[in-house]
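#structure-requests
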Amino acid sequence: MNYTTDIAPRLAEGKNAATIASEINAERRANQISLRRLSYLGLSALLAPEIVRRLIATLDAAAASDALVAETRNFLRSDSGVDVGNTLTRSMLDEFAANEQLPLTVNDAEAIKNLAYLGTLETAESVQGVIDAWNTPANQWSRAVAAGAAVIESGGTLAEAIAAMEAV
């Protein structure tokens, strides 16, 4: 995450750290879905137990009338697991979450699908940390000196260099 390219333009639009984190994560997600095969045990290690319990109950209920769901449930029970990055798996989770008769919630489905994303998801705290680091006096001084030096090196006057430093 880069202050200049990822954060500063959003701050200029009046967005807060939580909104900026959400937007950065959404941009990353669009390009970072990966193959990730998980079994019930793998899911249990990564998610809250109640989410996995609701997934099991949902698959048990839906498997009675759908052979594909029954097979998916069988793969989740085995070591091979199911690819949570697969388009079919993801749409199946969305369908289950949209069905009010099944226990899986929209938030549960999102939590499971999020396991396919590469990299670290940003939080409001991580964004705020970058903002705070950018705004430390030492960092501001360093940027100001660099801005002034750039003006002098390009043939500018001392007054122009001072103006560039003050603009930082």
